[in-house]
Write a structure and sequence with these properties.
The complex is a heterodimer of chains A (343) and B (236). Chain A is 32% helix and 25% strand. By secondary structure, chain A is α/β, with parallel strands linked by helices. Chain A has 2 domains: 232 residues, P-loop containing nucleotide triphosphate hydrolases (Rossmann fold, 3-Layer(aba) Sandwich), CATH 3.40.50.300; 68 residues, Alpha-Beta Plaits. In chain A, helix 3 crosses helix 4, helix 4 crosses helix 5 and helix 8 packs across helix 11. Chain B has one domain. In chain B, 80% of the residues lie in helices and 0% in strands. Classes of the chains: A alpha/beta (343), B mainly alpha (236). The interface between A and B is medium-sized, with 36 and 30 residues.
Chain lengths: 343, 236
């Protein structure tokens, strides 16, 4: 059982974290950021902004440069070109320690000391963050991740899900302005992943800016206000719904009990219908300009043929469709913005 | 530049000491190596004539413990964390490189000096109780004991900085230990020459060696900070 940090938590002495960026200032601002390792480009010319309190999803295939970008924003990796502001501070070597005091990075691997207890691990990091009244703070973050009764357990004896929770508790110690969870549910079972989602939701409620790196598109769709897709360069950025609208034509799906005798006659020339094709017998996909205009006309036309209509509705496109279209166009079987079919 | 945060240094040192205590391979290394250094002085005292023991300062041989034993821990300091995946979370905190490395060095220094003094005390006690009075008198000389007490932390600290520098560059703990141990031996070689009477064990020589070691230790801290490259450590 997990619960979010209590609202009153802001009154807790809270490290050095939450006193910097102005209310209108973005939590993260990146301009033309590039990182090369010798001849290999990790990411190039990346620009975006993340508003304070926003949950921003960062998607991309393996090797796309996501983790390197997070490490760069976390001051662990020095960019080759470009500039950035993190938590109100310019990304410069002289600001590194101050930036790190305002952010928290949750690496994919929990990175806990296996021979130390949960409490000892957190005490160590409380010391590194200079957290005032560390015992009280540790008790609070452990309660917030549902581990109050596991404080004395050795981390090496915990399951992967519990270790991730300890890792999340560690990032909460300093009450960060910006949290960078990197694949936080990687390798977790659905229950443990759901608990991590609840915790991140709780942080959103407290106004923490979350820069979520993930492979899991359902996770991004559920948690994120906006997403960006990176594949060395930034491919797209926006709200999941906006991206679907931008990248895919509106589609109506019509399902009848039996295949129509002359679907070309039924669908051609209807108001708002631009194109159609059948994906299965009795299952038709229509590209339309406006579903609200096209759907009634389509329903009347199909019923007029005497067919039994099982359903008419807007065919949904998932964030996965958007992702596959941008990252691996060859795998999609959907109609793209250019009106052509992608298979 | 802001001053060093003693709280962060303490946090690092405290964590390291807790972790070392529960690391069986480190505890075994820190137990076996000092025991090896017990053998030679005891054999000397019980087999060599008191007249021959008058030459040199045999107790200085015991400086081999602080010269070699700390490399077991220090070589583990950075690459050990890197191998177990704990380095990156630490580097995302506000801790600075100099604070992190100072904390790690102090954590390695405490058990190294403690073990060195313990074994030295044991040797002195055995000689005082069981050796011929003339042999004991030849070996247990005030200046030699004082030199041992004074030089032990200096020699140990230098070995620790060498171990940390190598640990920051090595790919795994074992290779770091294999490299660090021989590199730390020159300070022991100097001690051995003093023990054998090749270098005279006089106060001016002791002061000169102490000054050199102190300088090397300050330089070692700076060199280890320079060798510690977070980007290389987490991306390669």
């Amino acid at each position: 059982m997990t619960r979010a940090l209590p609202d009153g938590d802001s009154q807790v002495p809270s490290g050095i974290g939450n006193t910097a960026a102005g209310p209108d200032e973005p939590a993260i601002s990146v301009d033309g950021l590039t990182k090369r390792f010798g001849g290999r480009t990790a990411f190039a010319d990346v620009s975006f902004e993340v508003a304070r309190g926003e949950v921003f999803g960062f998607l991309g295939p393996n090797g796309a440069g996501k983790t390197t970008l997070v490490r760069t924003l976390g001051t662990l990796v020095v960019p080759t070109a470009g500039s950035a502001t993190v938590a109100g501070l310019a990304l410069k070597p002289e600001n590194s320690a101050r930036i790190r005091s305002r952010i928290a990075v949750m690496p994919e691997s929990a990175g806990l000391y296996q021979r130390l207890s949960v409490n000892e691990n957190l005490s160590y990091f409380a010391g590194l963050y200079d957290v005032p009244d560390p015992d009280k703070r540790i008790a609070q973050v452990l309660a917030s991740v549902g581990l109050a009764d596991r404080a004395e357990d050795l981390c090496g004896a915990l399951s992967k899900g519990l270790r991730q929770r300890v890792s999340l508790a560690r990032t909460l110690l300093s009450d960060p302005q910006v949290l960078f969870p990197d694949e936080p549910t990687s390798g977790l079972d659905p229950v443990a992943a759901h608990e991590v989602h609840q915790l991140l939701d709780g942080l959103r409620g407290r106004g923490v800016t979350i820069f979520l790196t993930t492979h899991r598109l359902d996770e991004a769709e559920r948690l994120c206000d906006r997403v960006a897709i990176l594949n060395t360069t930034l491919r797209v950025i926006g709200r999941p719904a906006d991206l679907r609208d931008r990248l895919f034509a509106k589609t109506l799906q019509v399902v009848t009990r039996r295949p129509l005798d002359r679907p070309d006659v039924v669908f051609t020339g209807l108001p708002g219908v631009q194109a159609w094709h059948d994906q299965d017998p009795g299952d038709y996909l229509l590209t339309v300009t406006d579903p609200a205009v096209a759907a009634p006309a389509v329903a009347r036309a199909v019923v007029a043929t005497g067919a039994d209509v099982l359903s008419i509705g807007e065919a949904p496109h998932s964030l996965e469709d958007v992702y596959l279209l941008l990252v691996d166009p060859g795998t999609t079987g959907t109609t793209g913005i250019d009106g052509q079919e992608h298979r | 530049m802001n001053p060093i945060s003693l709280r962060r240094v303490r946090a690092v040192a405290g964590k390291e000491l807790r972790d070392y205590r529960r690391n069986r391979s480190l505890v075994a290394g820190m137990t076996i190596i000092p025991l090896v250094f017990l053998i030679t002085p005891l054999v000397q005292v019980f087999t060599v004539t008191p007249a021959d023991l008058q030459h040199g300062a045999w107790l200085v041989y015991m400086l081999g413990i602080p010269a070699v034993a700390p490399t077991v821990i220090a070589a583990h300091a950075i690459v050990g964390e890197r191998q177990q995946g704990t380095l990156e979370p630490v580097l995302t905190t506000p801790v600075r490189r100099d604070e992190l490395l100072l904390g790690k060095a102090l954590a390695a220094l405490v058990p190294s000096v403690a073990v060195s003094y313990l074994i030295f005390g044991l040797v002195v006690a055995v000689i005082a109780v069981f050796a011929e009075p003339q042999s004991a008198a030849a070996v247990l000389r005030g200046p030699a004991i004082a030199a041992q007490i004074f030089f032990t932390p200096l020699v140990a600290a230098w070995s620790i900085w060498i171990g940390i520098i190598i640990s920051a560059r090595a790919k795994d703990v074992r290779s770091a230990q294999q490299i660090a141990m021989p590199i730390s031996l020159p300070s022991f070689a100097v001690a051995l020459l003093v023990a054998m009477g090749v270098i005279p064990a006089t106060l001016p020589v002791a002061c000169l060696l102490a000054a050199i070691l102190a300088g090397l230790n300050i330089a070692g801290w700076a060199m280890s900070v320079a060798a510690f490259d977070p980007e290389r450590l987490i991306t390669r």
